[in-house]
Records
---
Amino acid sequence: MTLSLPSALEKYSFEGIDFYLKRDDLISEDFSGNKARKLMWLLDHEVSGIKRIVSYGSAQSNAMYSLSVLAQMCGWEFHYYVDHVAGYLKAHPHGNYRYALQNGMQLHEAPLPDAFPSDTLLIEEGGRQKEAEYGVKMLAKELTEDLAGCDVAVFLPSGTGTTALFLQKHLPFPVFTTPCVGDAVYLKRQFGMLEEDCALHPTILEPPKKYHFGKLYREFFKIWIELKEKTGVTFDLLYDPLGWLVLLAYRERIGREICYIHQGGLQGNESMLKRYERKWKQS
Ligand SMILES: *Cc1c(COP(=O)(O)O)cnc(C)c1O
């Protein structure tokens, strides 16, 4: 697998905002976006004596898919634990779930065991762990070189907040983010688990209203389509729509040029698009 690194930095315009776009979605077809950055430590360091990796989370997770690619590449077993797989998904496998299974993922609909054999490496849900700093620091270095001399703020939507936190730690620019999973209090707590010094935390912008992670919203789909039409770029359907709604709502407050990080996740769009289709065919 060849990775195109450093990833491209491009310029676009949307709703009157000129912005830079860091194309981490183009790092590779299979191993891209912030999951590639967060898991880069596994690629660049010989992890000796490992026969299998274990992780857990949702059945359509982007991190799950990326881990399946990595495990296949490295010749490791990949065991993944989920609480529950929806009947529809089992009957009609699609999206990240389908492709991870095709890559040899062994799925367990069971609680994560307490202990594993010593040749097992446990990866936290969504790749939220301190080792992720290694790859995100590389992203920060690329951005620092790309944007030298610019008066810019970096923006990206957060899940666990791991990417935003390590970016802020290594960037000379302010980093703004918004919580897509949970609220600002949850995200702050996530930051605190990785870095005690609050001065090194990104700035959290609260969404204009409460959205539930993974739910379908008309305004999400609308802005996703508009972005595609006006920029030609396909964004992800889980995080980016809220990211852009927040960015548009706070553009004055940010008050600098924006660099938006495209964090990939496009293979997850397949299942989201199916859900949007099913929902609106009915109504
Ligand atoms: C995983 C993911 C995120 C969230 O990343 P965190 O480091 O957990 O905040 C954002 N966007 C996309 C497309 C992702 O796949």
---
Amino acid sequence: MNMITNHLPTAELQKLDAAHHMHPFTDANGLAEKGARVITRGEGVWLTDSEGHRIIDGMAGLWCVNIGYGRKELAQAAAKQMEELAYYNTFFQTTHVPAIALAAKLAEIAPGDLNHVFFAGSGSEANDTNIRLVRRYWQVKGQPERRVIIARWNGYHGSTMGGGSLGGMKPIHSHGGRIDGIEHIGQPYWWAEGGDMTEDEFGLMRARELEAKIEELGADKVAAFIGEPIQGAGGVIVPPRTYWPEIQRICDKYGILLISDEVITGFGRTGNWFGSQTFGIRPHIMTIAKGLSSGYAPIGGSIICDEVAAVVAEGGEFFHGYTYSGHPVSCAVALENLRIIQEEGVVEHVRDVANPHLAKLWKGLEDHPLVGEAKLVGLMGSIALTPDKATRARFASEEGTVGFRCRERCFANDLIMRHVGDRMIIAPPLVITPEEIDTLVARARKSLDECHAGLKADGLLVAKKD
Ligand SMILES: *Cc1c(COP(=O)(O)O)cnc(C)c1O
């Protein structure tokens, strides 16, 4: 058997990696100089690298390893499915048991009348499906000019042309452009953009930008609104509580389809099965991926309500699909993952054990001199770093300088915590225990202390003047 082994020295692996492997979202020259960290094993919330460090994974990989690493049941489900039927497609009136079983299971778990699943290979692909699906829906309804989708600046919906265009990240738009028919409104990010408003006032103000945008474009041109219940890649931006009810009201008023991108917030992350339930959102479509398989196999999809599915069906064939839509191995792995989440009470563990335990410690970080707000919903947390909490000041240094330095200290302390600009974010595996949470927070605090000392020494604890 051709086994992939870790027999090469780390420096050799890093050299080969830099020479032949183009990494996503990475500065290739910077990487070649430093060498990437080589991760070799995972167990629960712990990773091991090629140097033997034991690292606590505060990000669950890329927000996806909800049940933790190393679960043999998923490996067995994949092996069994590969032996039985490694592949068959779901095009042209064929199907197979894993896709049927997973679609039925998702319909059971999803709230309301979200009863129909279109499978994709990833979250980006699923959002590309959503663009085509909502436009097709209005076409069949006899309103083909309704094709604009409204999204938010600093939202993240993937990195394909469609997903990247729905997202509101200018650096992504600047590499390759974006597709037409997508408009962006402001994000509900009170800490950085709320000025003198209360959080509640600001939440309403930002939601009403949706209404203003619809009026500007004409309601008869707008197909849908898409948003993440909590912005993940944008920095774990928790919206004010006034935000989503107002968005819902506006979508209802103008008859606009509402897409909740649950790629991160789905499958227990917020202490409910879906972020929509945590925020009282009633979407027509939910985007899913990541935690659907806990990252053990690539899979994504859209869960679609009865009415939208019926209208699209009325239109006859929908000319859309991926070779790997409903891949049997990915479906089998996802099913086993959902079984574990359900039978082991993982969502209840987040809600009743892990969140309450972490919430106390996380909020406690607000007494640290570098930390402004500390936010946590379920097991999705962020802290805003600031040189002056009272004024919610930014640093004078280029945005992200301080966040990067803090992340470097976390790395050195065997904790994976990401930075988005000068915000630090976490989303650990949902199965994290209270003892592991204590370790995570202790390492985070140590890293913040070291970062703070370094900033002081380098004269960087300076607020930006507006
Ligand atoms: C990660 C992510 C995506 C994209 O998923 P991929 O599987 O990386 O294509 C889409 N939406 C949200 C909210 C995400 O966090």
